[in-house]
């Protein structure tokens, strides 16, 4: 990184100024590292980054330099820093159109949970989203309902290998920890592409069913278990 960012000369200044797309893998990630990069890439429009080792405070200092961002691909978003990070994105990234979340499958890391509270934070702060991808996360009915109904600009939602929670997971805001009760889930991973119907705020197309369906019907269908009798939708 220093070989690019700390070199002097017109050529390197031109390179730094024209960074539009950057992938930051997990390489000794820290707040200091992220801030160092962000301060030197003010024109960035797309970023992919592993959040392991990044705090809400460090992300806040970094995102203020990235006001041109249109796409964020975020790996290993932590529940304890989730609210702060999403609020900072909402404040600084008015051009954001795509927000993707990928939970690492490493058993030593906790899957990100799109429960009612976290999804409400997304809906409140990422108002300009048109596309979102959610991979390897926990998600429950209320959370998905909030995203599909309250993210008004959202037209495409892709769920990849997500685990469906059968009941709400409570998040304690003070300590940012999941409730101690075991999480009940449908163990079979869910992968599905949802597309909002043109001209409608409440009708979606789902790639496993023909026709248009309202939000609640789509969610009810996704939470069916093997052996359930489909209801009329």
Structure keywords:
single chain, 233 residues, alpha/beta, Leucine-rich repeat, LRR (right-handed beta-alpha superhelix), eleven-stranded mixed sheet, two-stranded antiparallel ribbon, 8 helices, 13 strands, 29% helix, globular, disordered C terminus
Structure characterization notes:
This protein is of the alpha/beta class and 233 residues long. The chain has helices spanning 2-5, 10-17, 31-38, 56-63, 82-92, 116-125, 141-150, 215-222; strands at 21-24, 46-50, 71-75, 98-102, 113-114, 131-135, 138-139, 156-165, 171-172, 177-178, 185-196, 203-206, 213-214. It has a single domain (2-188), classed as Alpha-Beta Horseshoe (Leucine-rich repeat, LRR (right-handed beta-alpha superhelix)), CATH 3.80.10. The protein contains 8 helices and 13 strands. The strands form 2 sheets. Strands 1, 2, 3, 4, 5, 6, 7, 8, 11, 12 and 13 form an 11-stranded mixed β-sheet that branches. Helix 4 packs parallel to helix 5 and helix 5 (82-92) packs parallel to helix 6 (116-125). The longest helix has 11 residues, at 82-92. The termini are far apart.
């Amino acid at each position: 990184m220093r070989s690019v960012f700390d070199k002097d000369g017109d050529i390197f200044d031109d390179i730094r100024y024209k960074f539009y797309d950057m992938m930051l893998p997990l390489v000794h990630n820290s707040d200091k590292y992220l801030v160092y990069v962000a301060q030197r890439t003010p024109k960035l429009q797309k970023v992919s980054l592993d959040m392991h080792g990044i705090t809400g405070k460090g992300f806040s200092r970094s995102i203020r330099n990235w006001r041109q961002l249109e796409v964020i691909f975020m790996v290993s978003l932590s529940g304890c820093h989730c609210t702060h990070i999403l609020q900072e994105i909402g404040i600084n990234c008015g051009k954001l159109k795509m927000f993707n979340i990928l939970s690492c499958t490493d058993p030593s890391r906790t899957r990100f949970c799109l429960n009612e509270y976290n999804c409400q934070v997304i809906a409140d702060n990422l108002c300009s989203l048109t596309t979102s991808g959610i991979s390897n996360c926990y998600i429950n009915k209320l959370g998905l309902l909030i995203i599909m109904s309250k993210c008004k600009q959202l037209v495409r939602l892709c769920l990849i290998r997500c685990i469906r929670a059968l009941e709400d997971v409570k998040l304690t805001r003070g300590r940012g920890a999941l409730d101690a009760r075991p999480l009940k889930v449908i163990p079979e991973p869910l992968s599905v592409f949802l597309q909002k119907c043109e001209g409608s705020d409440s009708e979606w197309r789902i790639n496993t069913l023909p026709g248009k369906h309202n939000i609640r019907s789509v969610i009810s269908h996704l939470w069916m278990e093997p052996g359930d009798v489909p209801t009329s939708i």
